[in-house]
Structure formats: structure tokens, C-alpha cells
Amino acid sequence: xxxxxxxxxxxxxxxxxxxxxxxxxxxxxxxxxxxxxxxxxxxxxxxxxxxxxxxxxxxxxxxxxxxxxxxxxxxxxxxxxxxxxxxxxxxxxxxxxxxxxxxxxxxxxxxxxxxxxxxxxxxxxxxxxxxxxxxxxxxxxxxxxxxxxxxxxxxxxxxxxxxxxxxxxxxxxxxxxxxxxxxxxxxxxxxxxxxxxxxxxxxxxxxxxxxxxxxxxxxxxxxxxxxxxxxxxxxxxxxxxxxxxxxxxxxxxxxxxxxxxxxxxxxxxxxxxxxxxxxxxxxxxxxxxxxxxxxxxxxxxxxxxxxxxxxxxxxxxxxxxxxxxxxxxxxxxxxxxxxxxxxxxxxxxxxxxxxxxxxxxxxxxxxxxxxxxxxxxxxxxxxxxxxxxxxxxxxxxxxxxxxxxxxxxxxxxxxxxxxxxxxxxxxxxxxxxxxxxxxxxxxxxxxxxxxxxxxxxxxxxxxxxxxxxxxxxxxxxxxxxxxxxxxxxxxxxxxxxxxxxxxxxxxxxxxxx
Length: 513
Description:
- This protein has 513 residues and is an all-alpha fold.
- It has one domain (4-432).
- The chain is 87% helix and 0% strand.
- It has 17 helices and no strands.
- The model has no long low-confidence stretch (mean pLDDT 81).
């Protein structure tokens, strides 16, 4: 195995490349979302979000298999067994093709029936909704087949490829914005078609990049019952978690549609766009971090494994908090600048989603540590049951005519309960040092939050609202966060490493002059 210093350097480099990718995608996503909302209108934008959500309900099977593919590729690379890595890739591709066909079957039967008979679609828009649904199915199937290529790039930690392919994705999505405003064709149908074509192009780009750089990514059909059982056993238990996550997310959208209509779905769509953009800051870091967690466990480096889990949890929260805090505090002003006409409930939805994401970010490395062990059956059953509690509680409160925001309040509370149970379970699973985690991660995270948030919010309350104030809050929040995280959030060892890196960077700058 490579040294800890080399691993940390690789994580830092990969994180930087993923951030370049993220900034490209986020900038285009925020711009195109505003234009698409204006061109489609609130009603059609809501239809696109809810119709696409029905298809996503069937993709939970793929999510489980994607988790298994990623884990086994990382594990075999950690053991340095290249031949087995290639076998895992080909077998997982066979499985993903089968899953795509299964999703197609379910979506064209149960899903289509649900759309035609149960969904709250405005009069005169059902035909457009059906066309949108069909192309959403095809888009989902292509995304399913693409998963092994994504897993291959992540397993080899070649994150720069994501940045290159993202340039293609950015160009194509910008092209959609211009094409959408041309001609008299139904905008909703046209948007669905173009999104499908972009997905196909990006998938093909992934295939070309992987085939040219990784010999193991050249798919060849073969059958190995033992390997298949390993993949399916792991993914079978992951299926519960994927089904619970997708069911909770899309189930809540469907409940909002049934009780509140497509206008509220449009607001939820905006909240999902914002949360996706904000969370991408930490998801890119975790994507770069996760392979090392699995590989360190596979190599038997238990101390380094636990250290990575601790650092991953703490740094994930801090990275997200730095970005999310000004968005949370200035949420209404940000949405007004971005969208001009902000849908009702969008502001409160966005704020609640940010609270949920902060809890989710700190838990990501904990879940990855369970994947590394491979002992996921009981864990998945417990977590899935807790996640699915979102649906009955949300249904109950909506039935009692509470405001739509109640579904996200329930989601935040349930996620907090899951976090507590997760820590307790990990202590049983592999003697996770819970007390040390409480002191080193949770205590430091809470202290930073309790110091920085009140000061930032007070600055917002006493200033004049507008673009200038947003800029000032972003800058002041960033400086305050960096100072407080350095003093309170980092331990002594981490501060020493940070100072060494800063001195090293300073020396390089002086030499360049």
C-alpha cells in the first residue's frame, strides 16, 4: 500500500478536480433551471419533476447494485487483485443491463398505470406528461447502464476525467436552453427529449474514456455464479436502503402532489435544485475520500481506517457548513435574484433541506465504513425501517391539514434519530470508538455552529437586504468560519499539519517571485 502522505495528497488532488467539475455543473444548472422554469412555467416545471419522480421510484434496484459495484471494485483494488477487478466490472455491467430492462418493464406497467390513474395532472397536460414520462424512462435506463463506468473512474481515483466529461455536459445543457425557446413544439416534451439525448451523449463519453484508460472496463459477457452471488447478496441488502431512500424522497413528492398539487411540486423541485448544488460541495469531497476508506479496511490498516472516518465526517460537515450558511441566512434574497418569481413554499423548503443535508453530510463516512466491512444486512434493515418512517408520519400530518413544510420537518427529525442510532450500531459492528467520535467530531462541529451561525444571522438582521448584503455575508461568513474552524474545529495535530502546508505554500510563492 502507498503511504498515508501519498493517500492524503491523492485525496486532495482528486477533491480539487471534482470541485472544478462541480463548479461547472452548478453554474450551468442554476442558470438553466431559471430559464427552464421561465420557459416551461410553474405548472409544467412541476409536472416534469413529479413525472420524473415516478420513474426514479423504480431505479432503487439500480442504486443498490451501484453501491455493490463501487464497494467490490474498491475492495479488490485494495487487495491489488487486478484480474478480479475486471471480472467484477463485467459481471456488474451484465447485472446493470438486466436492471435497466427490469426498470423498463416496471415503469411501462405499474408506473404508467399510476401516472394515468393516480397522479394529479392539470387538465389538458396528460398527453405531454405521458411523453415526458416515456423519455424519463429511457433517460433512467441509460443512467443505469452508465453506473459501472462511473464506479470504475472513482475506484481508480482518476477524478480529472469527471472534469473533462463535465465540459461536454455543460455545453450540451447550455445548448438545450437555446433550443428550448425555438419553434412552436410543446416545451415540456421537447425538454424531455433533449435531456434524454444529453444523457446518451454523456454515457457514451464515459464509455470511451474508460475503455481508453482502464483495461478492466472492456465489457465481455461471462457467467460466474459465485461472483454473481457475492454481488447480489451485497446489493440485495443494499436494496433495502436504496428502496427506503428513493421511496422516502419520491414518496414525499407524490404525497405533496396528492395533497397540494403541482405548484408545491415546483417549489420542491427548486429546493431539490438548490440542495443538489449546495451538497455537491461535500459530495465531491466524499467521492474522493470514500475509496481510501474501503481500501484501508481491505488492506487491514484499521487505525488509518478509523482516522479517515473521523476526518471524513468532520471535514464533510465543515465544507458544507461554509457554503450552506450564507445560502440559509440569505435564502429569500438568493432565490429572488436567481428566479425573480419565487414559487410559494420554496424558501422554507430550501432552508429545511439545508438542515437535512448538514445531518446527512456528517453521516456519509459512517455509512461508507459499514460498506467497507461488507456486513450490511442488519444495518440496512434497521436504517431502511427508520428512513421509511418519513412516509406514514408525513401522510398523517398532511391528512391533518398541516402546511406542506411538515414533510421536511419530519425528514430532518428522522435523520437526526438515524444519526444517533448509526453511531450506536457502529460501536457494536466493529468497536467504533463512539466516545472519541463524540469528543473529536460532534463536539467540535456543534461548537463551530453555535459560534458562527448567531454572528452571521445577526449581521443579516441588521443590514439592508439586497445583493450587496449577500456578498458581504458570504465574505464575512467565510472568514469567520475559517477562523473558528481552525481554532475550535481542528485538533492540535490537524492545526500543525495545516500550518506546515501554509508555510510550504508560502515558500513556493516566494521562490516563484
